[in-house]
TrEMBL record:
It holds the Pfam family LysR_substrate. Belongs to the LysR transcriptional regulatory family. The keyword tRNA processing does not apply. Gene3D superfamilies: Periplasmic binding protein-like II, Winged helix-like DNA-binding domain superfamily/Winged helix DNA-binding domain. This is LysR family transcriptional regulator. It comes from Paraburkholderia tropica. InterPro entries: BudR_PBP2 (IPR037410), LysR_HTH_N (IPR000847), LysR_subst-bd (IPR005119), WH-like_DNA-bd_sf (IPR036388), WH_DNA-bd_sf (IPR036390).
Amino acid sequence: MELRHLRYFLAVAEERQFTRAAERLAMQQPPLSQQIRLLEEEVGCELFVRMPRGVELTPAGEAFAQTATLVLERLQQGVSHARRIARGELGTISIGLTSSAGFHPLTTQIIRAFGAAQPGIEIELAELNAAELIERLLARQVDVAFLRKPVETPADLSFVQLLDEPMVVVLPLGHALLGRDRDGDGDGGGDGEPPALPLEALAGEDFILVRRPGAPGMYADFLAACKRAGFLPHVAREVPRMLTGIHMVAAGLGVTLVPASMRHYDHGNVVFCPLSRAHGLSAPLHLAHPATMHNPAAERFVDFARASQVQARAG
């Protein structure tokens, strides 16, 4: 049984006449009558009562008409659903992000605005380090990812730089480099602003860094900046996430560097200090995705993020 037979049958059932149904279907009446006969043979019973001036549905025909209508309606719904998925209006996106990328307001603004603009698309989030995100993007286990500075840029992936921001030093409250201030809170200034520190002032510190395999780009940049500043840093601990490093600084186990946007993390036992000279240290924010995308919803997200970037720069 073919779908066209259902359409022929319903046309005759609605018109109650073969001639009008044939005109509606843009075909001749004899072939239509023949197709209906073949359908009745396949169903195994008469669907119409033939009368001199038309036809009427038999009880079996009435029941079959209800089923045929449902089948064609479900088919049309399926076609519409598939087309919306192909246009990227429906579907699911897996978005990966590093902890520091997730702290930048632009990341959450893009995700939230996209979700509001495309309510038919389900968003899944996964927090991983940069190396893990690259691996999952290549394996197509993640559709798009927000990350900082990748060293590895495989040809199968595309990277869009959304913005760049400075790095800041995270010191424990009361650290000697913060000096004394009129407030007595150890933030280095009576106006509540922490002091700007030259990188070389940190030469004797114990550094807490995100493990090199997890964030190789930022790790390498830091080592190069310290070399230019005239010292070799003592990396006392390596951690899986920047937030872990901040917690360790709060516990007095060392100091760390993070993107400036992570100052939004309200931790009462640390102070975020700017660097007086950047020494080439910065924290770019990238959107990474497969160069060839197979998920239309993810393609729509990338276009949306690019447009948001343009709007942000224009503003």
